[in-house]
Batch of 2 targets.
Target 1
Amino acid sequence: MLVCPSAGLVGKLAGTYFMEVLEKSRIRRSKPLPAVEIREMELKDVAAVFELGQKLFTAEEWPTLYRSWDDHELALLFSNDAETCLVAEAEGRVVGFALGRVLDKPRSAWRYGLLMWLGVERRFKRGGIATRLLRQLKGLFIERDTRMMLVDTAAKNHAALAFFRRNGFGQEIRHVYLSQNLENDPRYIQRNDRGEDDTED
Ligand SMILES: CC(C)(COP(=O)(O)OP(=O)(O)OC[C@H]1O[C@@H](n2cnc3c(N)ncnc32)[C@H](O)[C@@H]1OP(=O)(O)O)[C@@H](O)C(=O)NCCC(=O)NCCS
């Protein structure tokens, strides 16, 4: 698994700078947030979780992420790992979620708890909801004998990095994504000239 590029002095300095900027942009609320309940995700929540995720994980903001937020990914996660999927509910609707998965690595005695997706609705941010979701998910992982919890996020997602660091995550590993545009490959050009649209080779 991945994570963030803040190891080293430059990262630390940049991190300090962004922390200050983010601190200054803290949300000031005119009225307190309504009561929020953290509970297991149910089938009836899937559509609301998907919709909220679409607002939070946009392609522009997460262009290089190795996985993307789509209905298939969510359906798969929910059908295989519902026990480690949580939602935050306020005023009868979903305002946050933490979707996790227990991972057994081949030839490893360790069991890992992966936090796959974490999100909180804009209006509810900085209200401690993600902290509660994370704490509860950690408990579920521990009940399932996991010895380590893993998270990842884009290096420029400073809010998430600040959140994870605040919540005890460390040992950050930089992971580099590379890409190559295939549109200039003769086979791509040939294929398009022929007007092929099937995906089979
Ligand atoms: C990251 C995210 C889940 C945090 O949710 P949240 O409910 O606002 O987090 P909390 O209120 O529990 O924050 C706890 C602490 O984390 C840190 N933190 C959270 N958001 C921060 C921000 N924007 N800037 C700086 N620090 C932040 C702070 O230390 C905060 O404590 P404080 O409010 O007392 O200063 C939320 O911003 C989000 O949904 N982001 C979009 C999706 C995403 O990036 N998900 C993570 C990767 S999957």
Target 2
Amino acid sequence: MRLILISTACLLLAACSSSKPEQVDANAISAQRIAAHMAFLADDLLEGREAATRGHEIAARYMASQFQALGLEPAGEDGSFFQPVPLLQGERLAEGARFELIRNGRIESLAFESEFLPGVNYDQPDFALTAPLVFVGQGVVAPEFDHDDFAGIDVKGKIAVLLNGAPASFANDPRAFYSSGREKMAALVERGAVGAIFVSDPTREKKSPWARGAANWARPGMRLRAPDGAALDTFPQLIATASISADAASKLFTGADMQADAVFAALDAGTLRSFDLPGTVLLAGRARISSKVSRNVVARLPGSDKKLAAQHVVFSAHLDHVGIGAPINGDTIYNGALDNAMGSAVMLDAATRLATADNRPKRSIIFVAVTAEEKGLLGSEYFASHPSVAGPLVANINMDMPVLLTDLGDVTPIGIEHSTLKDAVESAASKLGITLSPDPMPEQVVFIRSDQFSFIRRGVPAIYLKGGTAPTHADVDGKALLDGFLASHYHQPSDDLSLPINYASAARLAALNAAIGRHVADADKPPRWNKNDFFGERFAEH
Ligand SMILES: [Zn+2]
């Protein structure tokens, strides 16, 4: 019956040629919708959507209008779609920045930008500190692996010198967790350190050259702002912080037990050890701190089941990107097409599918376009700690930077091994004929690098769907496409609409996200962490 109706429609419109018009049209229209959202969100007019800028506000207004057009309920504050997020902005100043190595009565200075950048101190914006140095490896303490970078050394009253990341010998999850700056700084403060110098390394700089990142030294950082105006989640005991390039490290390690090259070799070999460094360092920096507000955009599809509707399945995607910055090939607008206009557009399309379906999901579904992800997951942290909806958040489905540059038959579900969300993902994927691929680059530790981590830290099981690496055409190398994007376009002005974005793959990803959301929303029980799971043990209430 339905087929006949469609055929009639086709005759009338004289525009249908496929043997399965309904199926083809649904995905083609979805791909069109995603392309349309991205054309708006990644346009130069939005100037890279940096948090607390006009460009981001316009993007937020767009998301709210789209949610409203779908008939979703406003679920922000005061009956609106918006949740204001109070922020402090810190702008690093070049003037007054100093890094001076003092040894045997001689002073050697590192150069601002080309060799070092001071950190922003939100509690004491104008800082200067002279203290002795101690090298603490990667600054990791993991009792469960019998690993302690601080064993046998004293960091009290000293500036700790440390490398990024966590030991490669750890399994992926603990490695991800222990490589976070937050964990490292907490460990330093606990042991009485007063400063920290983060040393880049050659492996990291091969992917992301020091000069490229340092060129954007003037780009503001941010922290959440408490009601009393103070910065949240800072470490005031660490008075002075700085980052230095891998090249500048040779100066720091001169005259020490090990030279920089040997330290980097030990990092690669997993044989790092800690030791005191000769001399002292004078570290000084200044910043301009100002209060800002940027907005999360929150919409709700009310659940159809009276009892379960109080529980919320949260879809999230960050709407902000990094704004305007240092020119690359003459372009200063960092459009953030894949990062994360794509995730935002995929979330809107999943919302469209769920909001227009014949029967509403049993649990309520929240769609939140979060701000300030690029500033340290701040919008999601604020939403997860101050939900603008009453009732528990039972799951998070996050979408961030799916790299969809060819026709893909697979997706990479990050975090699938942690909770019963696995069932939802597998069942939805198999219904849609989508293959699930393992994380092709676990060393990137993405499970803690996007907004799902804000939910995980509050005990909410989460899943994070990335684009896959298995193209439907054998002559395309999916992994090479992903590597190429990360090396040449990620956080650069060229992450824009001139990339060969595959909207059909995006439509399939949206369909999968919607299906996962429905599966979770309709299940008898909310998802739960697996027994003895690394994150569940740490963050869930037992
Ligand atoms: Zn990003």
